[in-house]
Amino acid sequence: MAILYNSASRDSKALAEYYANSRNIPPTNLVGLSLPDTEEISRADYNKLLLAPLIHEYDTRDWWTREKSPEGLLVPVHSQIRILVCMRGVPSRIAADPGLPMPKPDEKSYLEGNLAAVDSELALLGMEGLTIKGALKNPYYKVDKNFDDTGLPMTLVGRIDSPSRTTCERMIRDAIETEKTGLWGMSVIDIAKKFPEAQEGDPALENIARYHRENGIPAIVDRFPETLPINYPLRDTAIYFGWYDWNVSGPFLNTSFNFKKGAVAVHLHSFSAAQLRDAAKNWSAPLLTRGAAATLGNVHEPYLQMTHHFDIFEERLLAGYTLVEAAYMALPVLSWQNIVLGDPLYRPFLHLDGTGEVKDEDRPYRAMRIAKLRWKEDPMQLETMLRDGANRLKSGPMMEAIGLMNVDQRKTGVAAQDFQRAKLFYTSKPDRLRMDLHIASMDRAAGRNAAAVKILRGTQTLYLDSPEVMAATSWLSILEPPAKPQK
User: Fold this and answer.
1) 361, 343 contact by CB (below 8 A)
2) Among the listed residues 344, 273, 306, 268, the one whose alpha carbon sits nearest the alpha carbon of residue 136
3) pLDDT grade, residue 485 (50/70/90)?
4) N or C: which end of the chain has fewer CB within 10 A?
């Protein structure tokens, strides 16, 4: 691995050294280039200040051997550096080249434009003679093999970047610390079901929900057209996938919300990573600021079919691949708009088999995973054992997970009882409110709007002093929209 930083930025250099020390990367693998201290760089400056000097560094350090391909292109045939990580301070976007014809404002022309993510262009580092127009096929897409074993003439490029150096350092620490224990907690999947494109995007999220069920990871799955409501009360959120709001919304607007350490959190939007400096805009920067250790994003419009395929990404993470391997396995194209943010070497599910250091707060989720492994082929026995454990331990998370499992099986009456019992085990108002919202959600999904409204009105009284009650108020405004003013 090599680390690229902006030598004109003291913070960028310090962050590169911090990461190198954390991952025991030799100082000789750090590359500092003097770059503009901006998120966007012109194509001319990218070529002059970043690409050419970086190639020179690879040449002088004997990091690769390059030869002509059968097509006449100069390509790396052997490289000591298989992963490159860009530190905060290295620009993330390449602006359109004004010296080239500007594409017309239609999809076909845009797909031949030369806007790009710096990282996506660097994935083809050392290949000369390639067009800068449009996207190029990613040869690692859908491959199910460690990158080092592929021999592909490309580089996996990650980025440790966020609104602050402090957040970047925390992302690094969280990834390394979480690898000691494994990532345990709740999954939250917010499915859109409101766009024509949902026919492509929603199935990927449904696949993730299925993967989590199969692995014993409790999942809250929202299938309403709008994203989760403001201040929706979440707990132990270790995994989040959703789409499709322009700016951060819903549960993540709650000032008390924070992801579980090591969380992987991704929201699909065309401009999710259009900027990485403002913690209140777009999605990538806010998710990282709210405690996530890793996310994916797009710096410009990528078009849905050329974004990371979330289900492949999550499947590969669950299989034990690193963050950067999983991200590139899930990406159809290079030389395009996509980036991966977080420690590229991070393996969040390293201990999905139950190994690793055990923390008290992880015990309920570890127990559910072990039960799933033991009684995978006997769902009735699985539920019995989980229920016995939840009652014996008076565990809110375990009883809530049983309710969510019964929602998946469309046993809504049993699920409602499970959620009511979970309310007895939980001690905090936000957790109890979430149980009521689960029940209201089932009623709403079944068309029992009156029953849902009754529950939501009750929560407004019970949880009047909790900021999370805004979630119930938001759903009420949908089920009982205010009357339009008379003209």
Assistant:
1) no
2) 306
3) low
4) C
Quick one: tokens of 320? Answer: 């034990």
Q: What pLDDT was estimated at residue 71?
A: 82
In the predicted model, what is the mean pLDDT of residues 273-278?
A: 98
How many of the other CB atoms lie within 10 Å of CB of 235?
18
Alpha carbon dihedral 33, 34, 38, 43, in 10-degree steps, equals: -70
H or E stretch including 453? helix 449-462
Q: Which of 352, 384, 387, 357 is nearest to 370 (CA)?
A: 352
Please give the pLDDT value at position 103. 60
Please state, for a pLDDT cut of 90, what percent of the chain lies above it.
88
Backbone angles phi, psi at 43, to 5 degrees: -60, -40
Structure tokens of 92?
Answer: 């993330």
Nearest to 186 by CA among 431, 378, 385: 431
Span 212-270, pLDDT tens digits: 999 999 999 999 999 999 999 999 999 999 998 899 999 999 999 999 999 999 999 99
Contacts of 21 (CB under 8 A, 6+ apart): none
Q: Where are the alpha helices (DSSP H) in 249-342?
A: 284-289, 310-318, 323-329
Q: DSSP letters along 6-64, please?
A: ETT-HHHHHHHHHHHHHTT--GGGEEEE---SSSEE-HHHIIIIIIHHHHHHHHHTT-E
DSSP string, 55-78: HHHHHHTT-EEEEE-TTS-EEEEE
d(CA 182, CA 159): 22
Determine the 3-state secondary structure of 35 from DSSP.
coil
Q: Read off the pLDDT of residues 111-130 as tens digits, 9 standing for 90 and up.
A: 778 899 999 999 999 998 88
Inform me whether the pLDDT recorded for 195 exceeds 80.
no
Distance CA 417, CA 244 (A): 32
The radius of gyration of the chain's CA atoms, rounded to the nearest angstrom, is: 24
Class of residue 62 by CB neighbours under 10 A (exposed 0-12, middle 13-18, buried 19+): exposed
d(CA 249, CA 295) in angstroms, rounded, equals 16
CA distance 198 to 465: 37
The tokens describing 46, both together, are 């990218």
Dihedral angle over CA of 359, 180, 372, 401, nearest 10 = 50
Dist CA 286 CA 98 (whole Å): 31
Q: Which residues pair with 188 in a beta bridge?
A: 220, 240
What whole-number distance in Å separates Cα of residue 55 and Cα of residue 68?
A: 16
Find the DSSP H helices in 265-411: 284-289, 310-318, 323-329, 363-374, 379-393, 396-408
Three-state SS string across 410-444, please? CCHHHHHHHHHHHHHHCCCHHHHHHHHHHHHHHHH
